[in-house]
Specification:
single chain; four-stranded antiparallel beta sheet; 10 strands; globular
């Protein structure tokens, strides 16, 4: 079974930091690329970041570039998202998912031009991040 377990969310003040973890099972993160996604109440799910399986190349949405860092530990089969200088617009539930359907690693919009949106058959339960003073 493919399973994703996200953790690390919580309540944080503006300007604060959190580190999210995504522990994968049923596949290895050096075989499939893994992305982070978020969904705020009343809004559609949006891609945040992605890291490729073979060479750990990273991609970021414009809204988080320079503030968030994605990384992975192949031995632990875990992907991380370090989030710094958080603001209210970062409030959302964060999910991770394997990129097992794209033709290329992290090969979905907006990280690869002229490709379609991200698709996955597998999602975790998500971890909630609330940024508030």
């Amino acid at each position: 079974q493919v399973q994703l377990v996200e953790s690390g969310g919580g309540l944080v003040q503006p300007g604060g930091s959190l580190r999210l973890s995504c522990v994968a099972s049923g596949f290895t993160v050096d075989y499939y690329s893994v992305g982070w996604f978020r969904q705020a109440p009343g809004k559609e799910r949006e891609p945040v970041s992605c890291i490729t399986a073979t060479d750990s190349r990273t991609y970021y949405a414009d809204a988080v570039k320079g503030r968030f860092t994605i990384s992975k530990d192949n031995a632990k089969n875990t992907v991380y998202l370090q989030m710094n200088n958080l603001n209210a617009e970062d409030t959302a539930t964060y999910f991770c998912a394997p990129d097992h359907l794209s033709d290329y690693e992290c090969g979905f919009y907006p990280f690869r031009a002229r490709q379609g949106p991200f698709r996955s058959d597998y999602w975790g339960q998500g971890t909630r991040v609330t940024v508030s003073s």
